[in-house]
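Self-study notes.
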Amino acid sequence: DFYIDSSNQVYFFDEETKKIRQNLQELGQFELKDGTLQARKSLAYSLAHLFEGRDRVSFSQEFQNLAQDLTHPEDFPLQATQVKADLRDYQEKGIGWLQMLHHYGFGGILADDMGL
């Protein structure tokens, strides 16, 4: 397997790179531009795990923040709300999760198991 860039330079893939390439193809839409992988934000969680521990891969700070927040939403700083209520811990976590999703332009639904 190989890749030819815009300047017609040829890059041959080693076994590790072939595995990564296969995983990327399974994930779907992405683009390689000037040695940089460009993908939808919704793939951040999967990409972070795919490339975890690989020394030859580096991420932008923005991507690192997104992957961190998706992986550990409980650490996302809770913003003040206009809701005047005493919330339980799990409700605060849920609101924090929704705020984190909103911050990155994602949508989400929060539901409970009370059958409401």
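Second protein, same conventions, sequence then structure:
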Amino acid sequence: MRSFFRGFGHPKDVADRVFDLLQDKAGEVEYAVFMSHFESVLGRDFRQLTQAPIIALEDPLASREVDGTIEAFKAFLMTKCRNLQEAYRILDYEQGRQGQLSGNAKLCQKAWRLGTSIRSAVLRAGCGQDRLDQLPAVHTNVS
């Protein structure tokens, strides 16, 4: 409760007074009761409890692990890159090396190269090979 009020710039004394007003006989405040007082200001959307996985897999545990790896890589890019262009440079390490291929084959080549680039960039970000192996294959076979 203190961190909630701190987020709005109020000191811990305010949080303590609100706690004293809302606490039940057991000395606890139910989260839903507390937050119901702020719905008119914050709206109902702030209470979204679940977030759709970044990459949905059949196994929820594996999906959570993949999301963790992606979040770690995202944090790496956000701390190392000043803008989106720098992030793309990290991902596209073969920038400028285009083969003389037809449109569909070029697209497949770019997808494969991007997958390879992402995998090497994730390794450079400090995620281990075990975390990298959790990511689904990003390659596209050219047939």
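Instructor comment on the second fold: The radius of gyration is 23 Å.
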